[in-house]
Amino acid sequence: MKINIRKFLLTLLILTSYNVIACECIIIKSVQKEFINADYVLTGKVISIDFVQILKKNRKKTEILTSEFRDELDIFKGRVLAKITLETTEILKGEKRKKEKIIYTGSGGGDCGFNFKEGEEYLIYAFKNSWGTKELRESNRKYKNALYTDTCTRTKIFDKKEIENIRLLIE
Description:
Distance between the termini: 73 Å
Shape: globular
Oligomer: single chain
Strand content: 25-35%
Number of strands: 7
Order of helices and strands: HHEEEEEHEEH
Radius of gyration: 19 Å
Number of helices: 4
C-alpha cells in the first residue's frame, strides 16, 4: 500500500509543478526601440488559430505536425507553437504584399506565448530571426521567413494611442 501512496504523491507533485513554470521577460522596450528592432509591425484581426509541432526524428531530419487543437499534440515529444492567421488591417513596418499574415507564438506552459483570441484585433511586433521559430525555420524552407511574437514584446490588443505614436515615428 505504501508504494501506491508514493506513486500517487510523486504523480501529484509532477502534475502540480508543471504549472509553476513561468515566463519571465527581462524588459519591455519603448515604442521607439521595439519599432526599430521589429521586422514587422502591423495591426490585424485573428481569423484562425492552429498549432504546429516540431518533432526531431534524428539530428538531420525534422517533422512538422499540424493540428487545429493543441491537445492533439504531445508537448513532451517536441516544441508546440500556435500559428496565428491574421487579416491585416495595416502594416506599419515590413513587407506589404499580402493581406493575410501568419505569426507564430508559444503555446503556453511558460514559453512566453502571447494568448491571441480569434476575432480580436491586435497590434503586433513580429520578428523573423527569433529563437522562437529557429527550429521551424531550419526544418523546412517554407518556414524560412516565419514571424514570431510573444509576451516579451509590445504586442497587445489593438491600441489606438500606441499606433498614433508609431505613425509619429514613421513621419
